[in-house]
């Protein structure tokens, strides 16, 4: 999936993604997104995050969500998208069940302090790094500006997963029992995108 974005950037890197938000309005070019996600991938790699590690993304529909997702995938990690309205109990269950190694969320969102929610969710035995976008990093936290800046030279190349390796985990709603993780690979995600594109083409015909 991330390789497709790199190809798109080569042909239309000046195209813009505009996010309308009262907290984090932004305008990124496709090239901006690619560059920052590549930086993030290298920074994650330098922290030992790679193939099979899970990066939890509990972000609103900001431009940073796309950078975080693509950067994690470029590092070889599996992304775990989480809705922003999860309570601490559900958050604890999903982060523990998925063995998430990294958490990326907003500092504040709709009156909720993400740090407080994550603290209530502890202990989280697999979580090694946490990053909150929107405020200065506290001691022991990762900093978004630093993580999306060019890193020092990596001592080893990033080992990218294959198209059939896990790329995304999505949890069911858990209406009748505990939420269950549904696993996607890059191949199945691409197939889903193509299916939706074909459905739109049929509807417009």
Descriptive notes:
- The protein is an alpha/beta fold and 205 residues long.
- The protein is 40% helix and 21% strand.
- It has helices spanning 2-12, 30-46, 63-74, 88-97, 114-121, 144-147, 186-204, and strands spanning 16-19, 26-29, 54-57, 78-81, 100-106, 108-109, 112-113, 129-133, 166-171, 181-185.
- A hairpin with a 6-residue loop joins strand 1 and strand 2.
Features:
10 strands, 4-stranded parallel β-sheet
Quaternary structure state of the chains depicted: single chain
Helical proportion?
Answer: 25-40%
| Arithmetic mean pLDDT | 88
Largest sheet: 4 strands, parallel
Element order: H for helix, E for strand: HEEHEHEHEEEHEHEEH
The total beta strand count reads: 10
By helix and strand content, what is the structural category? Answer: alpha/beta
Stretches where pLDDT falls below 50 for ≥5 residues? none
Distance between the termini: 28 Å
Beta-strand percentage?
15-25%
Strand numbers in spatial order across the main sheet:
4-3-5-8
